[in-house]
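hi!! sorry for the late reply, been swamped w classes. u asked for the two structures so here they r. pasted raw, havent cleaned anything up. first the sequence of the first protein and right below it the tokens
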Amino acid sequence: MSHVPDLAAPPAPVTAQPRGWAVAGVLAGAAGFSALVLESGLAMFDQKEAYADAALMYAETHDRSLIIAVFLPLMVLAALTAAIFGAGLRRWLAAQSPAGSLLPELAGWGALLVAALSLVGSGPVTEVYFQVLHTYNPADPDIAMTLQRLLDTLPWVWTGLLLSTGSLTVAALRHGAAPRWLGWVSAVFTVLMIAVNVFPQQYLTGYLGAIWLVIAGAGFALRRRPAV
């Protein structure tokens, strides 16, 4: 006896896709932007002579130890949540893009590069922090300020995120794998990030990338759920 389906039965419920990865993108952008704003205070010195004198740099940095202490957890949070966002974005685009497309992998790798460089770039924080607090007595200003200049450079280089913004641009505008408005926003940020690397103002990629993460993360997190 053949089985006749019950046409009156309600359709199976649509399983809502998790959005935690998108929220992680918002956290990554907010934490990264906040960390870079704080860190910018370490790169500027009150005395012009300090830029040519490690001892003067050291003296001024000693009064900014709280900034150094707060910067590290913020940047680590930004790095870890950026990696989560990248993994989620890769999965989302893989489900929406044509089979065999490189876009999902490129988008994920872009966020992962930002995460890696943020961790590596914030690494000198611990050493600089203990140096300026005179835990090493006497501390060597040349060593401490060399580490600080690395801290003033590496965490800002979020250029790897160009892979994510560019991939999302193509995925959204060409394949409809993401909202078109987000594709156009990503296109604008892609152009801006290319521009600041050409001129060269690469430090600005940190700010631009952080803002894009907040917008993209919020866009995916607040997207409409499919109708049941």
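now the second protein. again sequence first, tokens right under
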Amino acid sequence: MLQLRPGCECCDRDLPPESQDAMICSFECTFCRDCAQGRLHGHCPNCGGELLRRPVRPADKLARFPATKDRIHNPTGCP
């Protein structure tokens, strides 16, 4: 099950579970759309994988299977 991480690893922008702007790779590294498309050119800086829009978990399932609160942020930013 996806962790639904709460923020962008580059700029630390909040990405709530219902966000349409969250992008992930196959390892669930999470970035906002602006960083993913602009700075990272659609590729994860950690694994080199493709960044795609993170699916939105339905509200009734989110109550039972909540998003993680663990935040991952690279304080030096992304390349």
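hope this helps!! also noticed smth abt the second:
The chain is about 15% helix and 10% strand.
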